[in-house]
Amino acid sequence: GQNIDQPTEMTATEGAIVQINCTYQTSGFNGLFWYQQHAGEAPTFLSYNVLDGLEEKGRFSSFLSRSKGYSYLLLKELQMKDSASYLCAVRRSYNTDKLIFGTGTRLQVFP
Amino acid sequence: DVKVTQSSRYLVKRTGEKVFLECVQDMDHENMFWYRQDPGLGLRLIYFSYDVKMKEKGDIPEGYSVSREKKERFSLILESASTNQTSMYLCASSLEGRLQYGYTFGSGTRLTVV
């Protein structure tokens, strides 16, 4: 079967750093995506990794290890507006745009 | 600004009704998707379309059908609504060959079947 695991909830303090992990076991792999979803809103695209290593985009970074079936999203200098759900998703094959999503991690940032 | 627009934000329907959820994108994207989002289950793919009149079943197609007569519009049809189809429905689109830029999602339709 296809399995993508993320922690259900995390809390952190404003200004801190938080790492949200995602592990996957899928039949095929051709990229991993992170999305941010504020309550009641549509998910928005954050990052894409297809090769091993770290991709940095401002305060957000995403890491991938294909051999370990593992990714993380790193959020630095946390702000209150970062309180949201973070969704990990996997593309299984290059010839389809279908994604399999994890159940999401709800992050709460406290002052 | 590029957009995916879902026709209704909230919808309440009765059991047994035929329900149409509409999605329109203005980005000339080839691929369009319908997902449902439920607490603890995440987003699950119902159907997707990779071209006009072309469609493929996702992971949970039972009880649903789709229509794509024009490139910009992708409709989800609940043939006979049931209470277990109460959910948040999200439409998304992507540009063929450019998935590294991710999906663009609509704002969602929260459907309640009573």
3D architecture notes:
The complex is a heterodimer of chains A (about 110) and B (about 110). Chain A has about 110 residues and is mainly β. Chain A is built from no helices and 11 strands. Chain A is globular, with a radius of gyration of 13 Å. In chain A, about 35% of the residues are buried. Chain B is mostly beta strands and about 110 residues long. Chain B is built from no helices and 11 strands. In chain B, the strands form 2 sheets. In chain B, strands 2, 4, 5, 6, 9, 10 and 11 form a 7-stranded mixed sheet that branches. A 4-stranded antiparallel sheet of chain B has the order 1-3-8-7, with no helix packed on it. The termini of chain B are far apart. The mean pLDDT of chain B is about 95.
Could you name the key traits of this structure?
heterodimer; A: 111 residues; mainly beta; 6-stranded mixed β-sheet; 5-stranded antiparallel β-sheet; 11 strands; 0% helix; 56% strand; globular; B: 114 residues; 7-stranded mixed β-sheet; 4-stranded antiparallel β-sheet
Fold topology:
The complex is a heterodimer of chains A (111) and B (114).
Chain A: E1 3-5, E2 9-13, E3 18-25, E4 32-37, E5 44-49, E6 53-57, E7 60-65, E8 70-75, E9 84-91, E10 99-101, E11 105-110
Parallel strand pairs in A: 2-11
Antiparallel strand pairs in A: 1-3, 3-8, 4-5, 4-9, 6-7, 7-8, 9-10, 9-11
Chain B: E1 4-6, E2 10-13, E3 19-25, E4 31-38, E5 42-51, E6 54-57, E7 64-70, E8 73-78, E9 87-94, E10 104-105, E11 109-113
Parallel strand pairs in B: 2-11
Antiparallel strand pairs in B: 1-3, 3-8, 4-5, 4-9, 5-6, 7-8, 9-10, 9-11
Number of helical stretches of at least 4 residues of chain A: 0
Distance between the termini of chain A: 40 Å
Give the assembly state of these chains: heterodimer
Coarse structural class of chain A: mainly beta
Strand content of chain A: over 45%
Summarize the main sheet of chain A: 6 strands, mixed
User: From the helix content, strand content and strand pairing of chain B, which structural class follows?
Assistant: mainly beta
Radius of gyration of chain B: 13 Å
- Helix percent band of chain A: under 10%
Encode the helix/strand succession of chain B as letters.
EEEEEEEEEEE
What series of H and E elements makes up the topology of chain A?
Answer: EEEEEEEEEEE
Q: Specify the overall morphology of chain A.
A: globular
- Mean pLDDT, all residues of chain B: 94
Please indicate the percent range of residues of chain B in DSSP E strands (runs of 2 or more). over 45%
